[in-house]
Amino acid sequence: MKITIASGKGGTGKTTLATNLAYLLSQKSPVILADLDVEEPNSGFFIKGTKIQKQKVFRMVPDWDKEKCVLCGNCQRVCKFNAVIKLGEEVLVFNQLCHGCYACSELCPQNALPMKSYEVGKITEFEQHNLHFVEGKLNVGEEQAVPVIKETINFVMNKFSPDILRIFDAPPGTSCPVIEATKDADYIILITEPTPFGLHDLKLAVEVMRELKKDFGVVINRYGIGNNDVIDYCTNERIPLLGKIPNMKKAAEAYAKGELLCESIPEIKVAMQRIIKNLKVCEVLS
Ligand code: SF4
Ligand code: SF4
Known about the structure:
Blueprint: E1 2-6, H1 14-25, E2 31-35, E3 50-62, H2 74-78, E4 84-87, E5 90-93, H3 103-107, E6 115-128, E7 131-138, H4 146-159, E8 165-169, H5 176-182, E9 187-192, H6 196-211, E10 216-223, H7 229-236, E11 241-246, H8 249-256, H9 261-264, H10 266-281
Parallel strand pairs: 1-8, 1-9, 2-7, 2-8, 9-10, 10-11
Antiparallel strand pairs: 3-6, 4-5, 6-7
Helix pairs in contact: 1-10, 4-5
Bound molecules: iron/sulfur cluster (2 copies).
The site of one iron/sulfur cluster (SF4) has 15 residues, from helix 2.
């Protein structure tokens, strides 16, 4: 079972839910938690495991060969992403903009743009008893999260037995990185807040999940602030409401200290256990 935790916007509690669920479930059987929020991975603040390994993530970009180039400008014409430009007597490649489509390389009449590998991020694996934690991280200055997300998912799929529960902490939003992080999941948990902003972004996330034809449910974080509109929306749309995490000042304090909330706040532990119970009722967990 692959469960992905996503949200329409950042700061709604994705990491809190992912780390606490993974930790509690790992008390009974092995769990893999993968942080796919590669631009800002922070599950590692809460999971204190032993580092097992680290590996680099590469993608392919063209490498200009000045000796072979005849400055015909074809590469600039074929690149849809403005990642290669002929400027005077030079051809410039902007690695951050390149999508690695190979078009310029294959259509260069002189073979002057061979593809080379280029480091864009890292994958680090940690272990804490039954909990295997895998973190994908984009290198500073890089803009394309998708290749690192894809490689982090591949790492998890290739390394661990399919019988082990996988929990993926997706990036926020509704754009390409989220699609990449959710498209192969068996179930999605959308986390939101009971506020007008939370509801607005939840609706966008629900649209995406319906487009992807995914099974999903909703968890409300910081329950107690705002209003009941999220609950009414879920009821009207027949979306399973899996649980509510109470709004508590001490939760913010524990979070800031890097503590797992289910360990330090009994009310949060109860809320997390209720979410696990509801996932079992929905037959997402056995
Ligand atoms: S297509 Fe090849 S030969 Fe033409 S400008 Fe680009 S690199 Fe040079
Ligand atoms: S590989 Fe594709 S995206 Fe990258 S520079 Fe060449 S044409 Fe542009």
